[in-house]
Amino acid sequence: MNKVSYFIVNAFTTELYKGNPAAVCLLDTAIPESTMQKIAQEIPVPTTAFVQKKDNDFFLRWFTPAKEIPICGHGTIASAFLLWKQGIVPVNSSITFQTFSGPLQAIWFNELVEITIQKYQLEEIECSLELEEWLGMKPTYVGKTELDYIVELSHEEYIADFKANFHAMKQFPVRGVCITSISKDEGIDIVSRFFSPAQGIDEDHVNGSTHGALGPYWCEKLSKESIVSKQLSKRGGLLYVTPKIKDVAIAGSAVRVLSGEILI
Questions:
Q1: DSSP for 209-232?
Q2: What is residue 126's DSSP assignment?
Q3: Cα separation of 181 and 245, whole Å?
Q4: What is the pLDDT, as a whole number, of residue 57?
Q5: CB within 8 A of 203, min separation 6: which ones?
Q6: Does the reported pTM lie above 0.70?
């Protein structure tokens, strides 16, 4: 039997039991996609990232316990953090991840891992009766990206107290639903939660990719160049978001909490 080394890294936090945990598997050689999926089912975290070095680049793929996914912000943050902390890449060097969604860049900046993700076009839509019933209230705003619904509610308490009906979400033609509002806390601009049972994740602890739409939306609404975003899941996490002309920079802390080997 062969072995694969893996590490659990909590992204968007400096605390051991907070943020969004990702497993990062460092591959010396390619392994079958079916084996990647089995490993993701075996390791009890929302996302498992597989990193393989080829020449000067790193190839990166992400799997939930249910399926391979096209983008994962916290899995990318965790992967970059690990490559620097393990000494595989010098901290003063950037990292280019080659993915099926295109190249992703990561840099170490002010003790944070910063990645640049796609800026998602957000189109305002009318709130359907089904979505309003699911929310249990009339939203302030509903937008749709190529992936998700982005829903603004009027108060942070609605975000914190929201109880999602995951069965009812099966009717929504999207990857997930992000609910968001202005934060009431000093130093935090916005709050959000993200639900994505279609990916096998009922509620994502901290979701990075939705900020490809949340960042531009809230920066324009608040007349800011960047925002601090807090995810109000049970584990919670902080993201520092800066929209640019063609993409969005997302930065966060990370902490390594576990390492091991898995047989394949």
A1: TTHHHHHHHHHHHHT-S-EEEEE-
A2: P
A3: 24
A4: 85
A5: 164, 193, 194, 195, 196, 233
A6: yes
Kindly give the pairing relationship between strand 254-263 and strand 3-11: antiparallel
Using alpha carbons, select from 230, 168, 165, 228 the residue that is nearest to residue 193: 230
Tokens 């202005």 locate to 182
Q: What is the pLDDT of residues 197-242, one digit of tens each?
A: 999 899 999 999 999 999 999 999 999 999 999 999 999 999 999 9
Overall fold of domain 123-243: Diaminopimelate Epimerase; Chain A, domain 1 (3.10.310)
Question: What are the tokens at 245?
Answer: 């002309």
Distance CA 64, CA 47 (A): 5
Residue tagged 């390492």 (tokens): 259
Give CATH 3.10.310.10 domain extents, the chain: 3-118+251-263, 123-243
